[in-house]
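Encode chain A's predicted structure.
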Amino acid sequence: MPAAATPPTGQASADPYARYAAKAANTAAGPVPVYKGPASASAMPSTARPTTADGVPLAGWWWRVLAFVIDYIVMSVVQAFYQPLIPHLTSGLTQWIQDALNAAMQGSTTLPSFWDPAYQLGQAMITSTVIELVLLFLYFGLMTGLVGATLGQMACGLRVVPSDKPRPSRGLPAGPTIIRVFLQVILPTVLLSAGAFLAMNQASASYYALGTTLVPVGLGYTFVNFLWGAWTPKRQCIHDRAARTQVVRPAG
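Encoded structure for chain A:
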């Protein structure tokens, strides 16, 4: 390799960093930016989660849906225990389904009636519905009134609290609890069950028309009720607004 050229004696080698020093000097000569402090709160985008009046984070909509699905599974397990004990419910329903399938295969557009005495199904269905309503009221009412949350809400870390008030140490008062449970589960269950019973009685045109009206009304109310909590600022469903309650998720 050829040796590197040696600069003449008395001549300093060029500073390879000279241009950076000159650039820094030119920059320093310019105007110095002045720190004006943090931007105002109104100018900054808000990322805070909605909270109650006492600062507890509100539950997200999907957490509430998941909690209700868990509660529905719990009630379905309970139904699986008591429904086989109702006389003629299982046998009558099985026979009715077989006759309905046979009628459909033969081209008939009329289903057998629930109220046909041959099935002994009408009374059994009414008994099952009454038991279901009582259990729904006891489950949602007692759990919310005593501890402020159902099993599904507990599993998701949720809790029901009064709206715009400090959190209570325990559950809700009786008044808000009854209003909340009635509008959340009792009313839609009554609309759907009554509509199904009337629609199955195709021997009466008026009953059939009323039944086919109540079923969509019950389904529509159920969806609107839950969707209401997705677009309101306080994330309140219809039953929350009527009972003046909110659902919080302190851990999330």
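DSSP finds eight helices and two strands in the chain.
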